[in-house]
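Write out this protein's structure.
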Amino acid sequence: MNKIVIFGSTGMTGLCAVEAAVKKGLNVRAFVRDPSKVPDNLKNSLEVVQGDVLNYNDVLNAIKGVDGVVVVLGTRNDLKPTTVLSEGMKNILKAMKEANVEVVSVCLSAFLFYDLEKVPPMFKDLNADHQRQFDALKESNLKYIAILPPHIADQPGSDYEVKHDASPGRAISKYDLGRFLVDSLSQPEHYGKVCGICTKH
């Protein structure tokens, strides 16, 4: 893993993934809608590519020439019905196949571990698009790491725990989540797996 592209790189967790990748010494391409949102302290360490995840050619151009893909698409705090996450995901997966890139880590939500009736009503629409995103991932036959974090906390990183097919706890630091999104790309034990993650106490 030498060069990666990060989709959603200016969001809360996306920025942490960018920082983790830069710290690791990877060549990082940040896919952004708005380049002005890239923090000044990171601009010189990245290749910034402007585009829209719903535009297939933008996505394909960003994926060409990389070894791995990190997807941290989000809606900020907008909980209205959406298909942006799943449609963007489909473009990313299609472009990966066209560009012969096999490994992708994706930040989803721990609500996907819940029975539907247990998902809080305010999150149901967003969860439905996460589910569509997850379904597209599972059908892709790529080496995916599906990461289903619980509450993402704005707190310093510490040790974290990863469990397959279950959520091990209630919160994860955004820094640890960002780091795992990057580190898992070169950890084959997580390929094709659903990963729950939480801060170790």
